[in-house]
Specification:
By secondary structure, this protein is α/β, with parallel strands linked by helices. The chain has two domains: about 120 residues, Beta-Lactamase (2-Layer Sandwich), CATH 3.30.450.90; about 230 residues, 3-Layer(aba) Sandwich (Rossmann fold). The chain is built from 14 helices and 14 strands. Strands 9-8-10-11-7-12-13-14 form an eight-stranded mixed beta sheet, sandwiched between helices. The protein has a six-stranded antiparallel beta sheet with strand order 3-2-1-6-5-4. It is globular and about 70 Å long. The chain starts with 6 loop residues before the first helix and ends in a 5-residue tail after the last helix.
Length: about 375
Amino acid sequence: MAARKPVSLLKGKENKAQTWPDEPGRFTQESIDPFLLWSVKQGASDITLQTDRPIYQELDGVLYPGTYRSLDAADMAAALHKIYGPEAQARLAGGNDLDLSYEVRPDRYTRIRFRVNITAILSKGRDAAQITMRALPNEPPTMKDLNIEEHVIDHWAPRQGMVVITGPTGSGKTTLLAAGNRMLLERSHGCGKMLTYEAPIEYVYDAIESPRSLVSQTEIPRHLPSFAHGVRNALRRKPEIILVGEARDRETISAAIEAAQTGHAVYTTTHTTGVAATIQRMISSFDSNERAERAYALMETMRMVVTQALVPKIKGGRMGIREWMVFPEDFREKMLDMDFKEWGAHIQRAIPNYGQTMSQSARVAFEGGHIERRWYLMLASSVSSGS
């Protein structure tokens, strides 16, 4: 029988980053922040703590163990208490998942922030939990950092109307919105009063110099119960710009439309893929008896839809591939003159004239040597039908 390899040889085997060298025999509340700091220094974008599993780090889209030992129920209880508070397990037992932000302050001048989701799961036949933490930069990136296309930048700041950023979970929607906010703030004349409603707040703008701007960030449900409440709240505060973290339901979409109709620039996100699919999905959130009215109101206010996917780069890291379409007045008028049920095909055909398809963007990235052929082929077919 072969001798068991010593732990020191196993710990880093097939790991891009060695597991935590200061890993304790038992995780306590005092262990959490040092581990998170170490993970961020390794370059981890996401950290996942799950009962009966090692802690995993995501580096360039690939998972690597960050600890040698799996976390047991006591370890997870310490992590839950540290990250959320003493009522975490009771909230999970009540059928709630928990969204929050968390920060570590290694010294008085530095803070490292995380977006956190905590969800109850089943592990080995017992109730357990998974904590997903995304590391956030200290300040938002710039549009240049994200290689955002000039056409998108040129149409990012309508005087009024709605800009919608779409894509699956983890596709960088919030990061793109934050970069857009930074661009608005850094203009020579600023952006006036900007109100954001987020769940949770991910990026903050404390370090952005903008003397002609005032940013107010509200966390849902910590400060207000819902995004729809947030939009109604915004209309009483005379903003120029309203950011709604997610247009996730009929009430929020309706409130966002009304805000855009009353002269505000409204930015929001949805979990859709493709420009045409986004319009169709937003319309379908309404009851059939009000769908036509809300569809035409949505088209009147729509200014741009950007849908994004993150894919691995050949040289490491990930890059955003985007489909987008600007909705100029002449196109909106054309749509308003036809039945909204016919919009999908017309929008899909119009994308190359008013923006760029996902297939076109993927081809540019592939021919530029940035992504592999398989990602190009996958993206080229992903939204070709507009669904």
